[in-house]
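Need a sequence for this fold. Nothing fancy.
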């Protein structure tokens, strides 16, 4: 059994690694989540042995029994994070410890074996080291997907006694097709993402599966993302299908819905709050209703709206559509506060500007 203080990874030799020319061709237009690197990192947990068998291996399918627990009871969690190419060919990670800690909290909520923080970090570093040549230059990045699922062959309704932890990676460009332009969002009056006492604060696949129909509805209305209201009153703004949301007011205040158990505690969200306060911006974490959102747009008190998450980082919201019509926020473009925060955050992530809050982790 591996100990918490020292994790040893065995290295598997890849039988047919992607050529440098082929990687270069992939990186010209990687899209998002379509192209994957050569390797993956895995570790296994059993009730008898704990965490063991950590290895860097070439990327290949898992062999799962039809009675594998995850296929029936959805014990599965994941994380999203990025590696950036820094100065001198260095590799930078952004707050990976926070990803490790959120992964542990998600595991606890889903009754799964938590991955020790040190194992999580070492696994991410091992994959980045193995596939460093896949990290794009410029504004691209290497998206990292740590995940874990119940792997026991068993159909009883109880927590699994076996788990597989894995990290895979893919080079990515902009998340939205329109790049850094403002997006349009659909406010759902029919579907909710999470309810009190549910799994909204855990990063598990079921939450995203529950958002897909609403996201499809948003697309039908020509929108890039869906905004969910609370499940009890259908009144309070909570989050987007895969992002947190902020409102920039005329008095300079930033407002964002509070973490109430329904909302995913986004690492980008927390970073925006800390960074804004460090810049002297007042940030209020408080309930904000959709009716108030509409009123503040009409009065001009609301100047900007932006969404944030690992994939898109910061995305300005220019228009909102709902069953009652459409509202334009400001002039419908990305505003100066959004641009300022996005430039500061991405500059820190990529090592282009000073890191006043010591968020950047050097992975190699």
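Here you go.
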């Amino acid at each position: 059994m591996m100990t918490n203080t020292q994790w040893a990874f065995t290295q598997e030799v890849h039988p047919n690694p992607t050529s440098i020319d082929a990687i270069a061709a992939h990186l010209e237009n990687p899209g998002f989540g379509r192209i994957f690197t050569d390797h993956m990192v895995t570790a296994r947990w059993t009730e008898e042995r704990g965490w063991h068998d950590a290895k860097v291996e070439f990327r290949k399918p898992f062999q799962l029994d039809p009675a594998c627990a995850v296929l029936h009871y959805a014990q599965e969690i994941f994380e999203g994070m990025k590696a950036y190419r820094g100065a001198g060919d260095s590799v930078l990670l952004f707050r990976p410890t926070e990803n490790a800690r959120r992964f542990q909290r998600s595991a606890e909520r889903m009754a799964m074996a938590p991955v020790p923080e040190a194992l999580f970090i070492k696994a991410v570093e091992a994959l980045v080291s193995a596939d460093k040549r896949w990290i794009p230059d410029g504004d691209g990045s290497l998206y990292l997907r740590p995940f874990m699922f119940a792997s026991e062959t068993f159909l009883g309704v109880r927590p699994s006694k076996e788990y597989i932890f894995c990290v895979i990676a893919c080079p990515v460009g902009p998340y939205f097709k329109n790049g850094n332009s403002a997006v349009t969002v659909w406010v759902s009056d029919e579907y909710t993402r999470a309810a009190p006492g549910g799994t909204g604060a855990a990063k598990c696949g079921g939450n995203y599966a529950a958002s897909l129909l609403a996201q499809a509805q948003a697309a039908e209305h020509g929108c890039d993302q869906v905004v969910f209201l609370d499940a009890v009153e259908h009144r309070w703004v909570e989050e987007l299908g895969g992002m947190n949301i902020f409102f920039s007011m005329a008095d300079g205040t930033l407002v964002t819905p509070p973490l109430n158990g329904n909302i995913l505690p986004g690492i980008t969200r927390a970073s925006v709050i800390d960074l804004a306060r460090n810049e002297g911006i007042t940030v209020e974490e408080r309930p904000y209703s959709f009716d108030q959102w509409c009123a503040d747009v009409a009065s001009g008190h609301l100047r900007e709206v932006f969404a944030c998450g690992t994939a898109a980082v910061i995305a300005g919201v220019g228009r909102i559509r709902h069953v009652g019509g459409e509202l334009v926020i400001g002039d419908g473009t990305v505003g100066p506060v959004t641009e300022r925060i996005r430039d500061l955050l991405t500059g820190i992530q990529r090592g282009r500007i000073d890191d006043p809050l010591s968020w950047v982790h050097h992975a190699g």
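For context: Residues 183-349 form a domain with the D-amino Acid Aminotransferase; Chain A, domain 2 fold (CATH 3.20.10.10).
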